[in-house]
Every structure is written in structure tokens, then in C-alpha cells.
Design goal:
The complex is a heterodimer of chains A (456) and B (492). Chain A is an alpha/beta fold. Chain A has helices at residues 16-21, 36-46, 68-73, 76-89, 101-106, 110-119, 136-152, 177-190, 206-210, 227-237, 250-265, 269-289, 291-296, 311-323, 340-353, 370-381, 393-402, 425-439, and strands at residues 5-6, 26-31, 62-63, 94-99, 124-128, 160-167, 194-196, 215-221, 241-244, 304-309, 328-334, 365-366, 387-391, 405-408. By secondary structure, chain B is α/β, with parallel strands linked by helices. Chain B is globular, with a radius of gyration of 23 Å. The chains are: A alpha/beta (456), B alpha/beta (492). Chain A: Residues 19-440 form the Nitrogenase/oxidoreductase component domain.
Chain lengths: 456, 492
Amino acid sequence: MGGYIEQPRFSCALAGQQTVLAIPRALPVVHAGPGCSGKVFAFSATNAGFQGEGYGGGGAVSSTNTGETDVVFGGEPKLERFVGNALRVLDGDLFVILSGCTSGLIGDDVVRVAQQYARDGHPVIGAETPGFRGNSYVGHEIVVHEIIDQFVGDVTPAVRPGLVNVFASVPPQNPFWRGDLAEIKRVLEGIGLQVNILFGAGSAGISEWRDLPNAQFNLVLSPWVGLDAAELAEKKYGTPYLHLPFLPIGPELTGKTLRTIADFAGLPAGPVEEFIAHEELVFYDYFVSTADFVADYRNMIPSELYVVGDSAYALGATAFLVNELGFVPEGIYLTDDPPENRQSDIRQALSDIVADLGDGDPVPRFEIDGRAIQDSIRTRLHGSTKALILGSTWEDYLARETGNLSLHLSLPITNDVVIDRSYAGYRGGLRLMEDVYTSIFKAGDIADTTLTRNKQ
Amino acid sequence: MAMAHPVRLDLPEVEVREQRLRATVSYNGTARDLSRRSKNFSLVNHERGFEQCSTCQQGCAGIAYNVRGAAVVEHSPIGCAQPASAAMGINVANAARGLPDQSVNVLSTNLSESDTVYGGAEKLRATVREAKRRFSPDAIFVLSSCAAGIIGEDIEAVTSELQDELGIPVIPVFCEGFRSKIWISGIDATFHGILRQIVKPARKKQPDLVNVFNFEGSDTFTPLLGKLDLRANYVISLADVETLSRMSEAACTAHICETLATYPAKALEQEFGVPEVRSPPPFGISWTDAWLREIARITDREELAEQVIESEHKRLEPLLETMRAQLAGRRVYIFAGDSYAHSISNMLLDLGLDLIGVNTFHHDQTTDGGLEEADSLGQLVASKGDIGNFSVCDKQPFQMVKVLKDLQPDILIVRHTNMAVIGAKLGIPTIQDGDVNISAGYDGLIKLGERLLTAWRTRRIFQNIARHHRHPYSEWWMAQNDPFLLSSEPVA
């Protein structure tokens, strides 16, 4: 957490409410000022390509809407009654009381209130998520930690070989979390694992979380978010974990990732290789079918790559676009504000998975100030109109201004509707190719020579 | 309506609406009863046993984002600062008005845990200086936040020190979310800062200029006022600091909504001698007539106004007849901000629709000027009669779902983002009427009718959503008879 920020790329720790909502039939109870929940929703879900309120999110989130009296006299007694009524009015399987800045500063104890209800058998936990504690990624970590600690709790695991819990995305701070998790689950099942995906429509909801201690291992597909949960589960249940610091995108990285996972899980190689071979057959059949287009339109397809996004997605996307599609990396801007002690690992991971960082700018920059990112890109472009900028809506403006192309990879996204889009795995790689190549027509009509019309 | 207190521009803060206008967020009854009970301020706010997230005044204070050439510093944790949607919306509005793009210049101090312990004043100074460096703004608004308020940051001291240092207005906006349940209190706070630190005494009066307080909406008022040879001075969204400084030079102040702007209108009248237009806002035929007549009276164009009104009525009549025939018999419900809900009500009744109920997000029991002519609820009841199923609550979908399920309107009109979904999920053709300006004036009626017709004709998608949607409320709650059960007192 540094200094001032222009063009914020994340919300605050209270965005942990979106993590709660990503679990089927789990509901947040926000103990914060009247606008907090709505602001978090607007940034995290609406500005993630209009992902919507889902079941009990958006305007339906219960909130104590802390007022002046609560700030002066304390809001805990009111919260106690409030949670009782929330349990009567709402139909949910898990309730997470989240504190905001007001309650965090006046010292209301949301965990104590939660425990009062939990003792009577209600599925209620508390999480300290005041905005000043950190960003959306931190809020996600806090919520997941508290669910494991307070809700899943101290149980003796009955380990089932082949069962894996996946910690791979911060919903919807990763705007493609829904599609990504579906693809991750698909490929893990493809190599013979059983998967607790934990979030999204593919999750069974709280029964999956209850099942979490029984996993053979935990899988963290992210440079830093998720490690806390894996470490907690190791401590509590003795579950080992595998940490891969990127989201796999495209066949090369996905195949490598699946082999590493299979090896860790001790899966028989035969079926794993068979699955990978089949996926690659399909992928490369499509891939080669784009050769005509790529060759005819080589002059029109951008070649310089700028990536603005969180470290998990930026690493995987850069690897695919450079290694497999021939882009030249020019700038990589990581916006998730990883803890300092993780930053050198992230740099290392990037150079491990990207074949050729070329003579561009091989050093990923950790930058949370949007203006600093845009100034850097503008300088590096040197007037070029051959760039593809993966980023947020802010980068759309930059691309338009500089005559380049842009594609969405990170929040905020205010001009695009995201449903099941995903760039993860095999299917995601194809989708990314489709979106990259289609984007050249966004700038105007194109002739298969070197001419365009309306390029801004 | 009782006379309200004078505007106090000598004080750094304006009182929130609960205190200033005795605003309330809970009522259930009829329009006439609400209007009558407001006259002696007999409505009170209750502690609520359960509620859903509202909206805060800090967000509304963000109307300062829309001032062209200004910068905004939010002294807050990062979650409070939300410029992305505004940045897009503002330039869509600029295009609609034929104006050049403007950038949204927002910096957050990004308050962290250690700032809450050791104080953030130094960070605030650094951020305001950086805002000056980055944006070269003509003014800087500094918005407070819950966190800054509770840790006791002295924003007034810092802004006044930096105003001297930077040589531009550095305006403190006191808008801590917890201080008010009436989110529009935050707009009052920003207006207050503009009136104190930007508006100058008139250098030269502009007798054909009419201040129009509005949001970033379409350009309805240039043609409408143009018929009277008057110019619309759109404030404050999309206007630059220089334009704001000259609001004092206008012939009079009008607005699209008493809820939005009776505070600055009163201040401009009291402190700068610019008369406030004494009329309900120009929505629906009779209110548009009254509005034009009042502006014409102030600007000495009464004869011209009568000619305009006569020819506009003549032009409108056949269009209106066709529209009424197409909409005949449709039952409509309104879920919108206080005064604007009254304005849409007035239009719907002009369109011959069956208005079966209204919920406003809050209710001011008076306005800043205390003018009877600008009391849109009183005017509505006086001209159109009583409206049943009239309630007040600050969004609260758990209540609205029950109200709407019970009333089953054919069409729902909502004015607030993320609330139209309530209607959609109940299968009710719903429109989110974000742009207020488009409905103003005579043509506004026809345009509103067209939007309603489109919602009605495309209703299959709403019906499909309703078939596949599950709401998060318990059977117990859905079985309760009174939707407002938990809003009056806590249940045991």
C-alpha cells in the first residue's frame, strides 16, 4: 500500500464481500457506512463487465449503514439485533459479517457477534475487512482465511486421494473468474482429479468448503493470493499444497502445468498424457486454421505487447502471447500490489515462463498508480501504432489516443459485457486469439494490404 | 411548507438534510398524507431492525468529478474513489451537448492502516500538491471520508493552507458517509464549497442567462429556453470553474429537481441577488407552462411566453393523443429520487397512465427556500389529486420486492443504478431513467412515452429473467403482510 492513486485498479478490503457472494448461497452482512457495500459492488462487479448482483449481492446486500450515533456510542448492540433479523429475512447457507472503516475504527467486534450466533448453530462468521486494511486482493484473503478458520473449523480430515481444492482467482477482481474456474475445473478433471473449485456456478457451495479438509492437496494458481489459505489448511489439516505462480493460458503453459500437478498428485502418466494430447490436437487444429489470416494480415496485426493487470493473469497472458503468438513484450505492469517479499519471485516466475523477453522491457513493474502506468506506456510507444495493450477501460482511452489496439484483461471494465469469457487453459487460449485478431477490425475497415480506414 | 433557515456560507459545513430539511427515509401511506404531515414536520426517522446497503453522501459529493478543469482529491481508503464509470459517462454527455471531452481528474490519498494510527495530513498535503502538478486544475475539491472523519483529520486547516500555497481554490467538502442517510447531502456539501470559494459577485449581469442546475444530461434546455431568447447556463456538471464563478451574473436560477438544487438556488438568491424560479420543475405540460411563465416574468418576456406556450400546446396535442392511445390502460409504478419521482408522476398522469404507486428514496419535509411553488409533492397533489401506495425508503429491495409483487405494475420506472434489476427479476418491463433532462419540456413527455413503449414491447426478456431467477429472501419474510415491518422498529 503506497501513496496516492489515480485511476484505481482495485477496490478496498471490503471487496471481500464479492468473495462471499462468489460462493453459491453465501451472503455478506456488511457492518459499515451506508455507501460502502454499493461502492465495492460498483467497482468490483459492475466495473468488471457488468457481472450483476447474482444471488443477494448488489443492492440486496444487508448493511447496518452505520450512522453518527453508532460512531459515537458504538455499533455492536445494533449489529447483534441486526444479524438476528438478517438470518430471518434472508435465505442463505453461510453469512459473513464484514466490518468496514467505521466499525473498524470504533472497535466493533464483528467476530464476537458472529460467534454469538454460531454458538446457537447459525452459519455465521466475522471478517475484519475495513477499507484501510488493504485492497480487494487482501480482502479476499481475509475472507477465505476466516471461512476456513471459523466455518470449516477444526475437524479431522478424511483424506480422499485425487481430491484437490483450487485457489486460483479473486472474484470478480479477475473479471474472467467464472469462465476461468470452469476451464480449470475441466482440465483438472480431464487428468483424473476431483475438484473443489469453491467459487462460482461450478461449485456445490458450502458443502465443498466443508469438504476442504479432505483434499489430498491444495493447488494455488497465483503468485501470492491463495498462499495464505493453503498455508492455513496445511497448518490446520496437514494438507500439502502445490504453488504455481501464474494462471496457465494456452496449450504450452497449460500442458506444463497439468504435468506438474499430475506429478505432485502422483497420477498415472498415461491418462494425463492422453488428455493433454487430445486437447493439443483440438487446439492446434484451430490454431493452424488461423495461419491464412495471420500470414495475409501480418502487416495489420499488432506486434508490440503491453500488459496491465494483476500478476496472476499478466504472467500467463504474456507467456502465451510471446511464446506462442510471437508478440514482442514491451511493458508489463502488475497492478495487484503484491507484498514486497513476493515481488522477486514474481519477476523470476515471469522470466521462467516467457521464452524471450527480447530487447523490450523485461522487468515487470509493480505499479498501482494508473497515471504512472499510462505515462510509461506513452513514453515507450515512441509514436508506434503497432501495439496491443491488454488492460482496463483506461487503457482503451490510451489506445484510442495513441492509435493502438486494446483488449480487456483487468478492472475497471466499464465498456464491455463479460459473461463466460476466459483466457485460461486451452479454450481460453483460443478465445484470446479470437479477441486479439478481431480487435484489428475495431479500428476501422481493413484491406489485406497495408491499408486501413478510420484508424484513429 | 415552513420557512427554512437561511443559508450560512460563512460556515465551512452545510448541515445534513436530516437536520436541515428534516428529511426522512421511512414512510408508507399516500401522497396527500405525506404532504400534509410534512407541513408540521411530523415524520421522524426510526431505528431499523434490518436494512440493505444504501448509498453515501461521499459518493454524491463526487459530483465534483464533473466540473471541467477541476481536480478532486479523496482523502480516503481506495474503495471510496470511483472515477471509472464517471469518466465514461461525462464524455458521453459532452458529446450529446456538442462539447469537447474533459478528463476526470481524481486522486485518492489511499489511506492505509498506519495512516489511521499516525494521521494522514502529510499524505493529504502531498496528494493535493500532486493533483496541482498533474492536472494543472483551476480548483481542487478535497472530499472527506468516514475514515478521515473518525480519525479527526483537520481537512479545513490543510485546505486553507494549500489554497494560499497553490493560488487556486482548494475546497474542503465534508461528506463523511456515516453522517447522513440522505445521500444527496453530499451534493449539498459540494455545492456549498462552490458557493463559498468559487462563485464571485457579478462582474456584469447577463440578463438572458438562466442557471439550470442539472446532472450530466442531454441538451434539452438550449432549445426550450431558446424559444424565449434565453440561454441555458448548465451547472455544475460539464461547466468549467470560470463558468461557475459567474453563476451570480444570471437572470435567475432554475433546476431540474428541487431535491438537487433548492440549496444553491436559495444561496444564489440570498447572497448574490439571483432570483430562484418559483415553479415546480418543467416536467409535464402544466409544470412546463408554469416554469416558462415564471422565467418569462423574471426576464420580462411574458407576451412571448404566452405565444410559445400556445404554439407548443398546438404542436404537442396530436403527438400526445397518439401516445396516450398506445399507452392506454397501462399501470405504472415509480421508484426514484424524491422530487424527480414527483416529476415523473406528473408526466405519467399527463400521458393518461394509471399511476398505481410511488416510492421515493427519501423525503425532505421542506426545501431550502421553503417555497410552496417549488414543493413538487404539494403541487402534484394539488393539481392531480392523491396517489395511493406512496412510500419512502432508501432503496431496500427486500421491501420493494414485496410491494411490487403485491401491486404487479405493467411497467416500472426506476431512477438509480442497480435498482431496475428488482423489476427485471420480477418480470416487470422496467426502465432505468438515468438522464433527467431528456424528459423535461413538452417533448420530454413524448420521449418518456416512447421509452415506456419499448420496455413494454420487449417484455419477453424480463419475463424470461423472472422465470429463472431466485431471490435471496426467506419464506418467512415473503409471507409477512407488511413490507415495511422492519423499518419502523427493531423486531425481537
